[in-house]
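Box 4.2: Ligand-aware structure prediction
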Amino acid sequence: MRKISIFGATGSIGQNTIDLIRRDPDSYDVVALSGGQNIAQLAADARALNADIAVTADEMRLDELRAVLLGSGVEAAAGAAAIREAAARPVDWVMSAIVGAAGLAPGLVALEQGATLALANKESLVTAGQLIMGTAATHNARILPVDSEHSAIFQGLIGEDMAAVERIIITASGGAFRDWTLEDMARATPEQASSHPNWNMGQRITVDSASMFNKALEVIETKEFFGCAHEQIEVLVHPESLVHALVGFNDGALMAHVGPPDMRHAIGFALHWPERKTLPVERLDLAKIGALHFREPDLQRYPALRLAHEVLELGGHAGAIFNAAKERALDGFLAHRIGFLQMAEVVEEVLTLLSPSHCRKNAEMTLDTVMETDHLARKTADQVMQKLA
Ligand code: NDP
Ligand code: MG
């Protein structure tokens, strides 16, 4: 039996992970599950999977969690420190699926224990790529990407030499506003931005798909995880969302990963790696699909993509600034405080204000320096949004 823990268990990725685990209960010994506000789901899964401990991120809801777990034998805990402590419990495999920068610390703790980290939380690599890759190397721990594009690249690179890689292409569906005009995008509401044409995901990443901030995070994630130059990374709009990424080699070959838009594909690959096992996902009928389309993204409509390359050129803590400003701008948009296109304006302004002091390429990066930068960028984003409103 493999010991596993799932952080962000109540979310979209967490629930897909639990779906796979529950199909094969005798293979897994579940140690810790964490959630946020969805106490009922957290408790139900902790009971069903017979977890050792269930942790909610919200300290105010500890009594409630304790009450619903009464008599189950599952320990209850709450707060960010409790999540980190749960991540320190020794296991073989950890799913990192908390949304946002809050996912960084538990992932680092899991790597320090030498666990294999299935990394869905892209913000970890964006805010602290050097730190998280360095921690994995120091503790001889493995990171397996769960973001579908990065799982696809990883699979395309099996048995290959990075030196032979010329380029990496990640695809984007184009999100909710793929065919909208710039004028219409400026007036888009959070409700309109929260529906995705192909993928069923958490609300924040769905809105980030419409703005392509999600793809911008993924460009940074690609550079940090695979160690390529940012000039080697390309983005193509691919409305069908069936080709997740392509790796281009020096002999002109392109290796494409094709699969249904179902995250259990990438989660299952990370769960069973280095083996491949049967997964409960749709088998594609390519004859029925008929055609796959690709086009270049319009950088005017998606300024986030341009900003991603600027972040990689800046280096240092630019990723932490970018992500934190993006998270606050997204909060502002969801709260109807700023418009859809203003999210990128806020992020660009925060980067301009903070990069002279926070983007020295050889600056030391620790969890503290990342979190300090994150806090400062959130505060700065709030000030910028106040001026805009
Ligand atoms: P969801 O919003 O569906 O779930 C987020 C999870 O994190 C929930 O368990 C939530 O708890 C918990 N959570 C929220 N805030 C905090 C916090 N401050 N501290 C601790 N836990 C918290 O997100 P997704 O599952 O969609 O995404 C998770 C991560 O995976 C993100 O980084 C996303 O970018 C990435 N990802 C997601 C994909 C997808 O298909 N969904 C694809 C590729 C990457 P609760 O719900 O109980 O409040
Ligand atoms: Mg993705």
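In the box above, the bound molecule is magnesium ion. The longest helix spans residues 367-388.
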